[in-house]
Specification:
The structure is a homotrimer. Chain A has a single domain, classed as Rossmann fold, CATH 3.40.50. The first copy, chain A, has 6 helices and 7 strands. In chain A, a hairpin with a 2-residue loop joins strand 6 and strand 7. By secondary structure, chain A is α/β, with parallel strands linked by helices. Chain A is globular, with a radius of gyration of 15 Å. Chain A has a 7-stranded mixed β-sheet with strand order 3-2-4-5-1-6-7, sandwiched between helices. The interface between A and B is medium-sized, with 23 and 27 residues.
């Protein structure tokens, strides 16, 4: 089990990212930010740039829509790392038609190998009505399974609603 | 921070309104009910009337699909108030194309200004798959943001499932 | 109130079934499994068969898409029973156009009558955006109401996310 791995689960606009950032920055910096959002258009590029400007000084940002696992190996072993978010990373893997089994196993190894603390932000997407769209159903299933796997190796798990945490673990 | 402000979060048919009503009526009445549902048709008008008949004696009902903030200023400052629900009020503001920023700031001021206890019932709507519909996505984002803001000024926050509460705050 | 009734609530792929199975098998077997999934096609038949093979020895499986209540009366009164899941049973009742009021009252009586411990797995489906589809809205409402009713008679209620439990009751 990794030393210090926190999974921050929550819905859309639940305040999970802000909650995670506050926890990370309570540690001494610099903090490494693993951004998994992918800019498909100008609007998205602008939102990503804005989010980057909004973060306080002291953050080092890595754009890793697919290359998250490699980046976790590459950054200094003891620095605090925030991954935002795991669910977008999974979406990117599904759209890129990579082998999920292999990718997830490699991600788990990279997480376990880190010495410094890691926070993973993830969406809980399975609490609505069954989606009619087949791809949405598959994505929902894969996201739930991945949250369970990370929940197992995490030392702490929080569920966020209205910006406030419930402790699922640790 | 207001004296005594409770946010009751939950999904559809989670029992959040009944939970809130039970808390309110544990205080001495009369209790003021701020109803934000809007009757667009006869069926809805009948459901609202039925809900009104179902409430015990001792409730004073205010129909405030848009005028919630004014009503919070107008009712006696020390009486217990239940707002059901915040998410419908937000929907009504979005459909009426009012300035959300202004409306929400005014609502917060009205809540902070009250001396008596206030309960706000709200829907958590961000825990399903991303909606395909643009308006639904915007609504989901605004509802999540509003829940975070109210969560910040609330003294107590509860998440309800199957009629039972989890304490997020207080 | 029944002696020992646990409601396990959670989203899709939240790990609720695995959590429930682990609790059940911590009791001495044999354990009775009430499967409510209905095989409409070969793929579904194969998934059900696979799930059956995956369960450890010691399980006795009953296929009860509609006949759950009768089976609860028929199996020996003291054996541990797992119902997976209540929400599919409700879906089957809605599709079969039975009288829900009567069916749910009979189910409650059967649950209260059991001497041995019972686990009910159920989906929380009300935490997304309001579905556009009328049938989906009705299903969502009925599922929420049923969860509330079972939550009331249960001695323990757990909400599962990422395979981990939050205690709503007991």
């Amino acid at each position: 089990m990794t030393h210090d791995l926190t999974l921050i689960l929550g819905g859309a606009r639940s305040g999970k990212s802000a909650f995670a950032e506050a926890e990370v920055t309570s540690h001494p910096g610099p903090w490494h930010y693993m951004a998994t959002a992918q800019a498909f258009d100008d609007e998205m590029r602008e939102r990503i740039a804005q989010h980057r400007r909004d973060r306080a000084d002291g953050w080092v940002t890595h754009e890793v829509p697919l290359g998250l696992t490699g980046a976790l190996h590459d950054v200094p072993a003891a620095v605090p790392v925030l991954v935002d978010c795991l669910t977008l990373w999974l979406t990117n893997q599904i759209l890129a038609e990579t082998d999920l089994h292999t990718e997830i196993a490699a991600l788990e190894r990279a997480l376990r190998a880190r010495r410094g603390p890691v926070w993973l932000v993830a969406n809980e997407v399975g609490l609505g009505i069954v989606p009619e769209n087949t791809l949405a159903r598959r994505f929902r299933d894969e996201a739930g399974r991945l949250n369970q796997r990370i929940g197992q190796i995490a030392t702490r798990v929080r569920f966020i609603a209205a910006g406030l945490p419930l402790a699922l673990k640790g």
